[in-house]
Amino acid sequence: SNPLHRQVHQDMQQPLCHYFIASSHNTYLSGDQLLSQSRADMYARVLQAGCRCVEVDCWDGPDGEPVVHHGYTLTSKILFRDVAETINKYAFIKNEFPVILSIENHCSIQQQKKIAQYLKEIFGDKLDLSSVSTADPRQLPSPQDLKGKILVKV
């Protein structure tokens, strides 16, 4: 592969909304969206391939532990904690630009609190907790400003 293809040649100082973002849908699935396995390592794979927005479908799991899977299907379930740890490990290995967690939330308040706890514990300072107003998208930070940060959208 051409090493020049790994370099960024665009102006990365514009507001985040000015960019197309490589996104993954049902990131956790290793195959079809009805019967396949949910696997945390799928996050490692897409992040290393350049994806910057990953989907995490969260549901109430047993013993107060939120799980990730495709709801109302026969896909297997994985622990949210394992997904977050995998994302944390692989988010910035090949790319420093921000990673967006697109969380589809189907959890009770109790398990939402557990998700918030894991986000803070696992990502630490990487978690961007600044409150951004979407009223004026020109005020959004740039990809350059957000290097090394994990953003959460719900």
Automatic annotation (TrEMBL):
Broadest EC class assigned to this enzyme: hydrolase
Catalytic activity: a 1,2-diacyl-sn-glycero-3-phospho-(1D-myo-inositol-4,5-bisphosphate) + H2O = 1D-myo-inositol 1,4,5-trisphosphate + a 1,2-diacyl-sn-glycerol + H(+)
Keyword flag Lipid metabolism: yes
Any GO BP: lipid catabolic process
Protein name: Phosphoinositide phospholipase C
Lineage: Eukaryota, Metazoa, Chordata, Craniata, Vertebrata
UniProt-recorded Gene Ontology molecular function terms: phosphatidylinositol-4,5-bisphosphate phospholipase C activity
InterPro entries the UniProt entry points to: PI-PLC_fam (IPR001192), PLC-like_Pdiesterase_TIM-brl (IPR017946), PLipase_C_PInositol-sp_X_dom (IPR000909)
Enzyme Commission (EC) number: 3.1.4.11
Matching SMART domains: PLCXc (SM00148)
PANTHER family: 1-PHOSPHATIDYLINOSITOL 4,5-BISPHOSPHATE PHOSPHODIESTERASE ETA-1, PHOSPHOINOSITIDE-SPECIFIC PHOSPHOLIPASE C FAMILY PROTEIN
Highest taxon listed in the record's lineage: Eukaryota
Alphabetical UniProt keywords: Hydrolase, Lipid degradation, Lipid metabolism
A single Gene Ontology CC term: cytoplasm
Domain Phosphatidylinositol-specific phospholipase C X positions: 10-154
